[in-house]
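Quick one: structure for this chain?
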Amino acid sequence: MARICVKAFGLAPKGLSARTLLHFNNPKFSGKQDGRDLADCVFSVLADYCEAESDLTISGLHEQLDKIAYASKQEKKLEILTPFIRSLSALELKWFVRIVSLRELHLGLSTKTVLTCVHPAAPSIWNVTQDLCTVCQRIAGIIKTQPVEAKSSLSIAGHHVTLNAAYRPMLCMRANSALEVCIAYEKVFSGIADYCLCLEAKYDGERVQLHKSGDKYRYWSRSGREWSYSYGTEGNGTTGTLTPRLHVGGFSSDVSECVLDGEMFG
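Got it. Here's what it folds into:
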């Protein structure tokens, strides 16, 4: 984000302002104090470059964040960000930087912690959708239809995995041996007739979630980042590193829709 600000405001790369932003963690350049982050540094360095006032709205901010999220290349992100951040006031730019640099703040707040504050069922819905808009819509429906006393006990029931909506993948606990897995499995399924356990080697690759709908394909990483533009979205198309080849002979003719979640390696 610091590099983007330097480019957007046309700062000399070796100038004091640019170096202060690029090395905001280094007290030699930024005079950093406890609690001072990149957003604070941006506010102090770029205040004179920013607009005195702006007409930014919450919906306008969300629209820009969506555009940035869907931009596939860094050059495209810069093209979107440059006019936007130059139109902000210093205070607005400070908080915009803080929003997009949230992971660097080390606040110790997990997604589950934040969503639980919205509604007890929100984390469960998020896990099978990875979409905040869908979470809000479903929570609104729950609030209207469920009695107050039932809201705190809502679980994942009714919140299903749907095609073309990324979900949080299942992550297995590590086991030191196959025997350890068998013992744990026995404890869970003992007394159930006709149960069996299959073990297979776990190959280390890239965790990918693939959603296929006809000749349309979408890919997500374990963290919910979409990689469709890289692998390809059209089975009958010519772009993408995987989809055109996967679509031809990769599935049985009677498979029109499916979700695959696993390791991809080559």
